[in-house]
Amino acid sequence: MTASGRKKQRKSTAPTMLHVAEAARVSIATVSALLNGTATVSPELTQRIEQAIRDIGYKRNAIARSLKMGTTRTIGLTVPHITNPFFTDVVSVIQQAFDRAGYAVMLCCTDEDLNTQDEQIRLLLDRMVDGLIVARVGDGGILKSIVEDANVPVVLLDRLCEGVDTDAVVLDNQRAVFDAVTYLIHLGHRRIGYITGTSDISPMHDRMIGYREALQAAGLPVAEELIRSGNFHEIDGYNATMQLLSLHDRPSAIFSANNPMVIGTMKAIRDIGLSCPEDISVACFDDFPWSDVFVPQLTTVAQPVQAIGEQAANLLLDRLAGNRDAPPRKLVLKGRLMIRNSCRPLGAIAQSVSA
Amino acid sequence: MTASGRKKQRKSTAPTMLHVAEAARVSIATVSALLNGTATVSPELTQRIEQAIRDIGYKRNAIARSLKMGTTRTIGLTVPHITNPFFTDVVSVIQQAFDRAGYAVMLCCTDEDLNTQDEQIRLLLDRMVDGLIVARVGDGGILKSIVEDANVPVVLLDRLCEGVDTDAVVLDNQRAVFDAVTYLIHLGHRRIGYITGTSDISPMHDRMIGYREALQAAGLPVAEELIRSGNFHEIDGYNATMQLLSLHDRPSAIFSANNPMVIGTMKAIRDIGLSCPEDISVACFDDFPWSDVFVPQLTTVAQPVQAIGEQAANLLLDRLAGNRDAPPRKLVLKGRLMIRNSCRPLGAIAQSVSA
DNA sequence: AACGCTAATCTAAACGTTTCGAACGTGTCA
DNA sequence: TGACACGTTCGAAACGTTTAGATTAGCGTT
Fold it and tell me: A173-303+338-354 belongs to which CATH class?
C-alpha cells in the first residue's frame, strides 16, 4: 500500500490504435490498413507497427469495429430447452460451425414460452447480432416482423412457423413417425398409444399426421382416447402414460413424440408395476446417448443432429456471406428408426395381457 | 420488379436517436436523458419523444452504447463439452440467471482442448464481454494473465486452476467420492475399479484422492492396476472397463469419475457378456435424467447443479455490480450420493465370481 | 523541366451513443 | 432592479474504429 500504487488503476484504459500509431510513428489509418490488409503498407512500417503492437499488447476493440462496420460477427441462437438432448446436440454442432467461421454464438433458452422468446430475440437484436437461428416457440410474436423487415437473416430450426417465410431446416417428421408406427403395427400392435406435445408447433403437428396415416394405411381405426398431449415435460409424459395405462382396453404400445416426455412414460410404467417391453412396448422420438446402454434399450427415431446443425449453420453463413436475395430455402432431412428391444412382437400371450 | 422498388433498400439504416430527436423537435441529448433517466425531462417533451419513438420504431443501438459506456452487458461462458449433462444443466441455470439480470450469454465449447479454450477466450474478450465464467481446461493458457490483468472478472466453474486466484465455485469432490467408495466398501466390495479423466484438472485430482482415502480409511490396499484413466469420452470409459474386466482378479465394482465415460463402462460390461449389478457393481459421478428410469438404476454422485450455476452467476454479478476489490471467494458445495440399485451387496456367491 | 502515374501514407469524417458543461428562462430575494 | 439559484434543455466532445479522398514522394516520359 505505498503512496505510489494507489487506486489500482481501475481505469487502466486498454491500449488503442492511437497508442500503437504513436509508438510506431505512423498514422492511425496505416495501422488499420495493415491490420485489415486493405492497403499495402511498406515492409518498414509493417515491421514498426507489428513491433509496437507486440510491445503494447494491443488488441483491437471489436465493439468500435462493429459500430463502424455495422456487423458484429455474432449470431443469436434460441432453443426451447437446452437440456433436451436433441437441442443440446444441435447447439453443440452449431456452435462449432460458427466458431470455425470466426463467429461468436449468443445462446438463449426460451423455455417453450412465446413471451420469453420475444424478449430474448429483442435482446439479441439490440446487441446487433448479424443473424438468428431460432427453434421457435409459439406461433406469432415478433419473429414474423423481423423476417419481413429483413434486416437480419433468420434460419428456422426444427420447427417451421406459419406465415414466416425464411430459410429453414427441419425433419420429415411425418414420414419418421409413419415409419415408427408402421414398425409397431408390423410387430402386431393394434392399439398404439400416442403422446404428443402441444400441437401448435410444426413437428408435433406433422408427427401426429404420421401416426394417423400409419394407422389408416394399415386399415386400423384411430382411437382418440389413445392420443394424449402434454407440455413437453417429463411430468406431462408421466401423466399421459398413467391415463393411457388405466384405460379399460389399454394400448399394447406407446409412442412418445417427444424425448423428455418418454422419461415420464418409463417412470409411469414402472410405478404402475408393469415392465417394458414385456407388458408394454415403447418407442419415442429423438435418440440420446443412453438409449442403448440400459435395459430396455429404447427404440427411437434418431434425428441427424450433425447434419441439421451444420445445414442450419450453412444456410445462415451463406446469407451472412452476402447472398441475401435468394428465395427462402427449406431443407427437409430424414429421420432414422433405431430398432432396439423396447418393442416386442405381440404373441398369443401378450394379447391376453389387457384382460 | 418495378423501377421504383429496386435494390430492396438493403441499406435501410435503422432509425437512430437523431431521427427521434428531429421528429420530437428536441435535442439528441434530451432523448438520451429520457431513455436513461439521467435527468428530468418535462412531461411535454417526454410525451413528444415517446410518441416519436413509437412512430419511428426506434431501438437503441447497444453497440454504440457499449462503445461509449465501456460495458456490453454480455458475459462469456466456456465449458469443455455442452453435451455432458452436468454442463448442460449448469449452462441452463447460468443462462437463466443472467437473462434475469439483463445480460446476454455467449457460449463457447472448448472441447477439452487448451488451445481451443485460449482462442475462445480471446474471441470473447475481443467482443468486450463484461465477465467470464470458465469451466477451464488444461493448466496454463491465457487464463492466468487475464485474471491478473484484472480488467474483466473471471469466475471459475467446477474446476480450479493452479496459480489462478479468482472467484470459484466447485464441488467437494474428494468428500463426494470418499462417500461413494465408502458406500461400496460397506456393501462388501474390496476390489473397486476406478476410472478417471486426465488428472490435470482439479476435480479429477480431488476425486482420486477421495478414492484412495476411502480405501485407506477402511484399511484396504490401493491396487494401482485397478485405476485407469482416459480422456473423458465414452470410448475411453469403454476401453478402461475392458481392461479392468480382463484382469485376472477383476474388481467387483467400478466407480467412474466422469459421466460420459460411464456409458462406455456399461457398454463394455454388456459386450463382455456380464451384467450389472449381478456380476459387477457400478457407480459414477454426475446424475442425469435417465439414471433412475432404466434397469439398472444407476447409483450416482449428484452435483447440486442448480446451486452451482446460481452461485457462479451470483459471484460474477456481484463483481459486475462493482464489487471489484473484494478478495477471491471460493465456494465449495457438497455432492449427494444417490443410492439406487446398480451396486449390490457382496454375498458368498458373488465372492466366487472372479474364479 | 514539366507532366502524369503509381504506391504509400495521412487527414478527417463518419458510426450512434453518453455526458459534461454551458445556456436559457423563470422565480426569489435583497 | 440586479444577483442568484434552479430546473430544463442543448451543443459538442468523446468512445475506438474504418475509409474516402487528399497528399506526398518517386520515377519514367516527352
Answer: alpha beta
